[in-house]
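=== Structure Prediction Worksheet ===
Name of assembly: unnamed complex
Input type: mixed (protein and possibly other molecules)
Chain count: two
Listed entries:
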Amino acid sequence: ELKVEQNPLFLSMQEEKNYTIYCNYSTTSDRLYWYRQDPGKSLESLFVLLSNGAVKQEGRLMASLDTKARLSTLHITAAVHDLSATYFCAVDWDAGKSTFGDGTTLTVKP
Amino acid sequence: GAGVSQSPRYKVAKRGQDVALRCDPISGHVSLFWYQQALGQGPEFLTYFQNEAQLDKSGLPSDRFFAERPEGSVSTLKIQRTQQEDSAVYLCASSPTGSYGYTFGSGTRLTVV
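=== Predicted Assembly ===
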């Protein structure tokens, strides 16, 4: 059974500082996703990581994947209030079905 | 349509009542998934369709849960004799063939009282 663990589960960030969220998974997979979810809203796809060493960046967010370590990181550069949300990583395990982590809730404070 | 549409957005059911949740995927998307998201947790896989074929229903929590997609487009998730533990947000996602990543709908928040 594939397990996906995110840490931390809660992160209070100060504006303009940098932070990293970690996503560990238990078995081999060739596809990892990062999603953002605002309260009461659905999941917004941020990144799809397909291979070892993959790195993708969008604005202040950068995601990377190390398939050997079964680890993905989501790095936040110079946090701003707009980034406050819950972030999920998800790993595909069979024909596109995903196992999600429990999410990391980010709060950016001035 | 422009996105994945789910209805109703909110549903309150009395325990023991049957409910039906609808998902209208993006036109042409072959794959359709249902997920259940409990409060404060990540979504959990329920079932998966490719066109009208239900290829995996291993995540359905009990035989009270039933999903169908008879014409390969709209899908319905039915829950019979609802229980309080069924209270959750039910998310539908769709994907075209050979694509990575999914588009999620806004979900249906089911509350069983």
